[in-house]
Specification:
Pfam families: HNH_2 (PF13391), SRA_ScoMcrA (PF26348). It is built from nine helices and twelve strands. With 295 residues, it is an alpha+beta fold. The strands form three sheets. Strands 1, 2, 3, 4, 5, 6, 7 and 8 form an eight-stranded mixed sheet that branches. A hairpin with a 5-residue loop joins strand 7 and strand 8. Helix 4 (135-146) packs across helix 5. The longest helix has 22 residues, at 158-179.
């Protein structure tokens, strides 16, 4: 029904077709065996902090005030496998903006976390569901991850096959985490994930730890030509979101690519993102003629 990475209007494309509650993070249509989940920044004001971990997507249950209980949408999500309901995850990109489809999932486990603030700031127990991709969408995610890594020259013996499998898994986790932070290409404004690449700010080879390699703050979602320009140092970004183009960029190329930001008020990067961007500016961005390197 939905394509991973594509954008959908929540009311028109989902609720008008299948029904279900039009607000909140868990929607349970009465006439279809589906559950629609919606994650995004809006939940943070209610104490929800959905996040990706190595074992799956940790998503808070519903309930803005007081202890969360296994009723309503929480109960439906907990019991969806026994009931035969399919679960589809969408990510909000902003108020009145489309939702991006992230895939079909199943609840692997659920647990209760103590002392989570509710909307009023009172501490309460919160239900957290750990979601794992179903087989078909897991394959889609891995195929998409392969587009973001270079496998040329690898001899696929048993050892290297394991290494490639681990690399794909880590790259998938990196993109999943990145998509919770960055919502669109900062050059073109494209937010449809099918046309975006997950680009490391500090390159994979330069990362000093595995945590840096899968840190969503160490990345940008860029359209394919913008990814190439960023990777080669022709463009970079300042902490306030302003894009810089290299003084070495040939003028005819600059004019033909129309390299101007689509957002007159760019979104500032977080402090963590700014740290990675400093590395990019210092070590990758082409500032002087002798900065040019073969990559």
């Amino acid at each position: 029904m939905f394509e991973v990475g594509a954008e959908y209007n929540r009311r028109r494309d989902i609720h008008a077709v299948f029904g279900g509650q039009q607000q909140g993070g868990i929607s349970t249509p009465s006439r279809h065996p589906f559950i629609f989940l919606f994650t995004g920044e809006a939940g943070e004001k209610h104490g929800y902090h959905d996040e990706w971990a190595e074992d799956g997507f940790h998503m808070y249950g519903e309930g803005q005030v007081g202890p969360m209980t296994y009723t309503g949408g929480n109960r439906a999500l907990r019991d969806h496998l026994q009931k035969g309901y399919r679960v589809f995850l969408f990510q909000a990109t902003g108020k009145s903006m489309p939702c991006v489809y992230r895939g079909e999932f199943a609840v692997a486990r659920h647990y209760v976390k103590a002392d989570v603030p509710d909307t009023e700031g009172d501490l309460r127990p919160a239900i957290i569901f750990v979601l794992a991709r179903v087989a078909g969408d897991q394959a889609t995610a891995l195929q998409r991850a392969v587009q973001d890594i270079d496998l040329l020259g690898i001899s696929l013996n048993d050892t290297s096959r394991l290494a490639v499998a681990e690399l794909r898994t880590k790259q998938t986790l990196f993109r999943d985490r990145l998509e919770l932070i960055e919502k669109r290409c900062r050059v073109t404004g494209i937010s449809d994930g099918r046309f975006l690449r997950a680009s490391h700010i500090k390159p994979w080879s330069a990362c000093t730890s595995g945590d840096e390699r899968v840190d969503g703050s160490n990345g940008l979602l860029l359209s394919y030509h913008a990814d190439h320009l960023f990777d080669r140092g022709w463009i970079t970004f300042l902490p306030d979101g302003t894009m810089l183009t290299s003084p070495l960029m040939p003028t005819p190329i600059l004019e033909r690519l129309h390299l101007t930001s689509t957002d007159p008020r760019p979104v500032r990067f977080t402090q963590r993102q700014a740290g990675y961007l400093k590395y990019h500016y210092d070590h990758i961005f082409l500032k002087e003629p002798d900065d040019r390197t073969v990559k």
